[in-house]
Amino acid sequence: MTGNYMWDEVSNKEFLIGTNPDSRLSLWWNGSEPLWVTLQNVGKNVFMYFWPVKKIITLSSSHLYINSPVTFNINQSYILCVPTSRQADMAAVYYEKIDVEGHHFGPESPQVRTAVQKLDLIIQILNQKIKESNMVNKLNVLLFSDHGMAKIQWMEKVIELDKFIDMSDVLKIMDRGPVVSLWPKNTTYQKVTLQVHNMRVYARQEIPERFHYRKGNFVSPLTLVAEPGWFITKNKKTLPYWKNDSREPSAWQNGWHGYDNEFVDMRGFFLAVGPDFKQNVRGGSIRAVDVYNVMCWILGVDPLPNNGSWSRVEYLLNGFESPFQSDTLCNIVLLGVLLLVFY
């Protein structure tokens, strides 16, 4: 799994962010084992809500509960009862609204602020249920995002590939946005690697190691990476407009993610509270791949080989020394600050 849009040269199959039947094939998912599968294999119960892989046979079992990815709202408080009623060893909820509003209206929009406020209210209810169930010292709660969001300006910062290369020299193009995968025809490999302002072109072996990307099964011979705020597409006709009140795909996108992860706006947040975590600690930056090791540790399972670094996260946990001085902020203030940083 290397992106929302992928192509397998061997089978000539496409993955189109789950919208086509071939996206359900196991070949896209077999490169790694999700944590919830690992937990089920050792006899633990897992509840997954609003996860976007409902019908992937290789990822599901009789112990796994996955809902359709619909809007999570405050009326669905039954979901919050699962962890406090001891029905599951782990329960996870994917909340998509902030991401959707960020794409449509931009990361600093009133719509994003409203979505964050709704999530904040849900977290307040969860905290109250934890207290009422006397599980404050028994339940760990983790809240984190998988990426940030950058403001984009369509029509002003668009890189139209067909203005720079002859598309007849291209075998395949997948995705659009900050990162685009391109398969040139063998005889025109060098011709396609034209330098374009505000975009970098990487041959597979040249992709920076810190991306943890170039060894993926579906990585193309050329990977195009836009500078922050710029958007790569074949031409403006292929831009991913969204349906607004007109019910036609005509509205501009105002936010996007997937840029170089050194770009500050791409950073997410990580918050955690519970018996396995130290209190009032505000640490340095961690990477998204580090969260997996934390979750394995508090769940009591051995992590599979991964790109995370234990040294970046162990100080957050009870029983480990911290290289950082404890912060005096209480959990509720820390939560508010980091949620504001996120949007």
TrEMBL record:
Q: Where, subcellularly, is it found?
A: Cell membrane
Q: GO terms for biological process?
A: choline metabolic process; lipid catabolic process
* Entry-linked Pfam families: Phosphodiest
Query: Is the NAD keyword given for this protein?
Result: no
Recorded topology in the membrane: Lipid-anchor; GPI-anchor
Q: Which cofactor does it need?
A: Zn(2+)
Q: Which GO terms describe its molecular function?
A: glycerophosphocholine cholinephosphodiesterase activity; glycerophosphodiester phosphodiesterase activity; metal ion binding
Its GO CC terms are:
plasma membrane; side of membrane
Q: Check the record and name the InterPro entries matching this protein.
A: Alkaline_phosphatase_core_sf, Phosphodiest/P_Trfase
The positions making up the signal sequence are none
> What reactions does this protein catalyze?
a 1-O-alkyl-sn-glycero-3-phosphocholine + H2O = a 1-O-alkyl-sn-glycerol + phosphocholine + H(+); glycero-2-phosphocholine + H2O = phosphocholine + glycerol + H(+); 1-tetradecanoyl-sn-glycero-3-phosphocholine + H2O = 1-tetradecanoyl-sn-glycerol + phosphocholine + H(+); 1-hexadecanoyl-sn-glycero-3-phosphocholine + H2O = 1-hexadecanoyl-sn-glycerol + phosphocholine + H(+)
Q: What is its EC number?
A: 3.1.4.38
Q: Which UniProt keywords apply?
A: Cell membrane, Disulfide bond, Glycoprotein, GPI-anchor, Hydrolase, Lipid degradation, Lipid metabolism, Lipoprotein, Membrane, Metal-binding, Phosphoprotein, Signal, Zinc
State the family it belongs to: Belongs to the nucleotide pyrophosphatase/phosphodiesterase family.
Q: What does this protein do?
A: Choline-specific glycerophosphodiesterase that hydrolyzes glycerophosphocholine (GPC) and lysophosphatidylcholine (LPC) and contributes to supplying choline to the cells. Has a preference for LPC with short (12:0 and 14:0) or polyunsaturated (18:2 and 20:4) fatty acids. In vitro, hydrolyzes only choline-containing lysophospholipids, such as sphingosylphosphorylcholine (SPC), platelet-activating factor (PAF) and lysoPAF, but not other lysophospholipids.
- Its name, as the record gives it, is glycerophosphocholine cholinephosphodiesterase
What organism is listed for this UniProt entry?
Fundulus heteroclitus
